[in-house]
Design a protein that fits this description.
The protein is of the alpha+beta class and about 170 residues long. It has two domains: about 80 residues, 2-Layer Sandwich (Alpha-Beta Plaits), CATH 3.30.70.260; about 70 residues, Alpha-Beta Plaits. It has four helices and nine strands; from the N terminus they run βαββαββαββαββ. Strands 5, 6, 7, 8 and 9 form a five-stranded antiparallel β-sheet that branches. It is elongated. The N terminus is likely disordered.
Length: about 170
Amino acid sequence: MILGTSGTRFHTLVVRVENKPGVLTRVAGLFARRGFNIDSLAVAPTDDDRFSRITIVVDADSAPLDQVVKQLDKLINVVDIRELDPANAVERELMLVTVSSPAGKRSEIMDLVRIFDATVMNVGVDEMMLSLAGSPARVDDFEQLLRPYGIVEIQRTGRVALAKLRKTH
């Protein structure tokens, strides 16, 4: 495995872009044309209506960070780009998952819900819909533990991240 400059296999980039139609298509198209692999992508408006924030997790195996940044910087609607060091960032992801839950297994699934502090969103005759927000590793762990019960449907948001706050002046 090739490691990025931060010592991880993935780079988390925060890209502030002008909030205009087609910008996300141009950013995603750049990655596709260059053969860069996106592991996660999340987009949201910022507190300033003129801009949106794109959080992109890039697989370091598919592209050197400097190459990705240079290519992104060439796009006209890109305002600025930052890499978040995983050691100095808080990352979260949301997962909604429908899992098979026959009567005999429901209490086992509820034990996992309690352990992970997940939320039961909906309950059907033989299925449950659960929600968990947390670090990507925690969401991964919860998903893996649910797999033996039978995942019917799953949706994950992709990572969102912010730099940790400074503790001293």
